[in-house]
Amino acid sequence: MKTFVRLIRRYVLAAVGIVLLLLFSGVAVLGWLGWLESCRLPQREYSSSEIADSMVETAEGLAFGAERTPQEWMNGYEWAMVLDNVGNIRWSYGLPQELNHAYTPGDIAKFARWYLADYPVFCWTEPYGLFVIGLPKGSLWKYSIYSSPDFALSMVRVLPAAALGMLLLGLVLCFWLSWRGAKRLETVANGLEALAQGQTVQLPTDGFAGELAEKLNQTGAQLQAKNEMLSRRDNARTQWIAGVSHDVRTPLALILGWAEQLEQDTLLPDSSRQKATGIRTQCEKLRTLIDDLNLTSKLEYGAQPLRRKDL
User: Fold this and answer.
1) Which of 107, 177, 195, 301, CA to CA, is 20 to 30 A from 58?
2) What is the pTM of this model?
3) Are 66 and 130 part of one and the same domain?
4) What is the mean pLDDT of the chain?
């Protein structure tokens, strides 16, 4: 029974371990996907806001900050430009010819958050104008998702509780399934213990352990039939030994008594008395064999107490 309890304990711990392993594996996969995405994103030395803030007014017009070269500022970007309040290009760097024109408020509204001629762009409003910087085509996918503030706040509040609830639900299901399986297996274990003690078992055959319970029922029935057959055989043998001993002892006693009388009769010739001695000797041997047979039968069934002594 201790082995059975240890087996159930290992089963429960294994189920809980699997749930925790799946949880940590999911977190690890999410972390790996995030790291992989960070490697796939365009690698930029400086953010667009840093570049926009670095722009300075000079006598010749706008220019990058003097602390770095334009190539260093634009590392990872394709082009940049600054629009004035009416949409005219005030300054540009590496601007494609197809984009070198004035922009209406409608054009600015279209590309401000997404793409300009398939270039992913970032826009920053600065005192000197609208700073627009573009990435290479196909390097970034931009898509805006809208939601109400209440929905965003509720997601922040609900997601941790939902994850914890799902984990607890998984653990509860594991414990419930383990407890249910343990009850079925406990019935089977009790049946095995009853069979070990020689008792008759009749286990219910429903559930996932039904086939095993059915086999135990069949085994119990076969053992019971064999025990009954052995019991009938032992009873028959015991009765046969007792009957033979009783039936043989009576004539044997008469033969032994007559042989002793003939052996002690002085009127008989010596040859006849010697024959009587032989008959008595063989009768005593036969009586000893019968006593040994009865003693063997008694020892087999524990009916003869043992007389033990030191030798």
Assistant:
1) 107
2) 0.48
3) yes
4) 81
